[in-house]
Amino acid sequence: MAVPALTPHSDPPRSVPLREARTRFSQLVALAELTDAVTVVTRDGDPRPVAAIVPAAAARSGAQARADADRLATVTAGWARRLEEQHRRSTQRHAAELGAVRAALAEAWAELDSRVVPGSDPTLARLRAAHADLHVRLTRGGLLAAGAGAGRAGPAHPRRGLCRRRASRGGGPRW
Fold first, then answer.
1. CA gyration radius for the chain?
2. How far is CA 161 from CA 54, 59, 120, 126, 127, in A?
3. Which parts of the chain are beta strand (E)?
């Protein structure tokens, strides 16, 4: 007795016209049983598949197919929920890190403003122009309005309150 082939077949299923399938039916069934081969049956002269001769293990009932589809939908929904949750957490983490970077940049600019008169250093002026949009967002209703300026100053004085390090050492801003 022959043993079924253990190697998976990546070959496309063979196509046989209906007349040939009638005459070779026993042979095609044995081929499916022993080698797990799939044979597609077509109408004579029409290349579209009509039926298939497959191994019994490969044939599934409609109920099995629906159960598999329901299981797949459940698993897919679970992964979708996990991915959405991960995306939400990642977005929150990104926003928090971006806020920390903006606060550090605002503190650095406040320290620079307290040490160097604005406009006296051309390199510093070029950097200030490069960061102008971020600095404006920080001072106009952004970071300062949210209370990151230690509660001393509002948006009217962008340099006050941002230098928390100097304020914590007992010295105030020098301007």
1. 37
2. 78, 74, 23, 24, 22
3. 14-17, 39-42, 49-53
Name residue, tokens 């949210």: 146
Q: What's the rounded Cα separation, in Å, for the pair 140 and 157?
A: 10
- Which of 31, 41, 40 minimizes the C-alpha distance to 5? 31
**Angle at which helices 132-139 and 62-115 cross, to 10°:** 90
Q: CA angle 70-71-72, nearest 5°?
A: 90
Is residue 6 classed as helix, strand or coil in its secondary structure? coil
For residue 146, the SS3 value is helix
pLDDT in tens, 85-140: 999 999 999 999 988 888 888 888 888 888 888 778 888 888 888 887 776 555 55
Q: State pLDDT tens for residues 149-160.
A: 443 333 344 444
- Three-class secondary structure of residue 40 per DSSP: strand
How many Å apart are CA 43 and CA 22, to the nearest integer?
11
